[in-house]
Each structure stands twice: as C-alpha cells, then as structure tokens.
Amino acid sequence: MTQTTMTDLTLADIGWGDHFSDQLDPGEALLQPARVTEVQRDRLRAMSDTGLHLLIPSEHAGSYAVGDWVLSDGTHALRRLEPTGLLTRKAAGHVSYTQRIAANVDTLGIVTSCNADFNAARIERYLTLAAAAGCTPLIILTKPDLVVEAEDFLRQAAEIAPDVQARLVNSKDPDSVAALHPWCGAGQTIALLGSSGVGKTTLRNALTGERAATQDIREDDAKGRHTTTHRSLVRTGLGGWLIDTPGMRELQLADMQEGIEEVFDDLVALANQCKFRNCGHEAEPGCAVRAAIEDGALDPARLERWRKLEAEDARNSESIARQRARNKAFGKMVKGAKKAKAGRRGGR
User: Fold this and answer.
1) How many domains does the chain have?
2) Are residues 101 and 146 in the same domain?
3) Which of the residues in the chain have pLDDT under 50?
4) CB 336, CB 344: distance < 8 Å
5) Alpha-carbon torsion 187, 189, 190, 192, what sign?
6) What is the pLDDT of residue 246?
C-alpha cells in the first residue's frame, strides 16, 4: 500500500470507533491514534489517517500485537489502548507467559485444507481462541478442487461446530473467494489462522490483490512449509483489513476457561445434569455425560478432547499465574532495595 493511498483513509476506515475514543484523556487530544500493522524487534509499523509511521514503543515490543491501537506523538507509541478483543496463546516452549497474537479482530478465519490437515481437535482449539477473544469464528475449507467429496469436509465442520459458519473456498477462483466478502468489508478486520501449507498466503493474495510468495505442501503428509514469517495487517480489496499469521506448530491454551465452556457448551450442559457435582464422567451413578454416550448422542472422542483442553488450560494458567507472582515479588524486592539504597545515601 502506498503513502498516497494511506492518506486517503480516515480513522474509521482503519477500524477506529467509540470503544477507542472513549479511552482518550483530555490531555491526549493532540496525540495521533495509529493502528499497529507490524511488530518488529524494537519498532512498530503503524498507520493513521496521515499515513504510515515507524514508532518507538514505550513498552517492550512484545507487549504489542498487530491490530493494536496506540497513541503517538509521531515518533513514539506513548500508550496502547485496550482492545475490543485479543487473540492470545501460551508462548511456545517451556516458558510461562501469554503471547499476544492479534488485537481488535472481528472475525477469526480458521483455515484448514480438504486433506489430512483437517483435524477436529485443532479446529476446536481455534474456536476456543475465538470465543475467548470475543470474535466471530469462520471455518474456511481450502483446496476443495483437490478432493472428490469436498462437501464431506463441510459436513464434518458442521458436526464439530453446528452454530459456526463454514465455507468451501478455492483461493484461485475469484467467484469462490467471493464467499468470504461479507467478512472483509470496510472497517472490518479478519485474521487468518491455520497450519502451514493450508493456503493462507494464497487466500491473502486473493483477498488483497498482493503477490506474496507461496509454497506447495508436501505430498507425503499434507503439511506445508512456512511462507508467512511474521504477522502483518494489510488492506483487503473491499476496504477491510486482514491479519495474516505464520503457521503455528504449537497452540497451547491458557486463561481460556470461558472460551472452552462456550465451545463445549453441550458437554457443560450435560455435566450440570450429573447427579454429583464433582462427577468425573467415568462410572459414577447418575452421570448424564456417560448416558449421552451410551445413547449415541455424544461422541466419546469429543469428551476426551474436552478433558484434554480443560487439563491443558488449567495447567498452563497455573504456571503463568505462578510466574506472574514471582515477577511481582521480584519487582517489589528491587523497588525495596532501591528505596533502602536511596535512604542510606540521604542519611550520609
């Protein structure tokens, strides 16, 4: 996108609304609202109604996410505004902190291809992510032209999430891509999330008119290589905004109990009918969950996926809470040491 195009945009075109303007203090009237388009190691790329900017963050760059709104003096990002919603995950590896993925997303496009990549457990993870962030989930089934029964994948998606809209999209066919236009209009932000090789970059090109490089998937396991290497916010051909993300090898959940309960609301409702409040849904008498499985109304695999996400979220949330407590205690210790040192100097 060129500087000339950027200066034609209003803040509303970029996604600004009352939620953000209501956060402004009287003393911030001269600051420029800008939306983060890319998070670099020590800089933020951002856009406003005056053009593109390269800003110095007031916090560690990792404290920001693509899609965030910040207040700027033209050189620095002075304050990050609270988002309408935030996509997060537990950071990959053996670390205990939450990583911000994208902010102020209206629609989460859960991209999976019509091949071995299609996985119910992974889709439920993404649905949980969307529910926790308060954005609308949309299942996008790519590469339908490469299979004989593409409609079968649409049926499977409906079984996983009956209330979530799903679309079969051939990213190389403009008429097929048009099925996504309702979520890509002016002022709207859609984020694409999915494994490597499912066609996110091809889909991005189709929606934005860009020519970002793509790579083929491996034939032996239907997996792909990373094409997108960083998150970025780009404009769609319909005037909306698209956040493309690198394929994720690991999506660990943390602090998402409410999201899990929303995605598995059928199991939550059954569990509330169990005779015992602490029912483990194994062999307890009066277990409504086991009764549903025995009647054929509930797939036992769905119960196991629910248990797995519940356990993972509890474990990761506890780990992150302990790390936060340690960091807080360390901060108090450092502050106390500085205060004591200043007191000794004053007494000389």
Assistant:
1) 3
2) yes
3) 1-4, 217-229
4) no
5) positive
6) 77
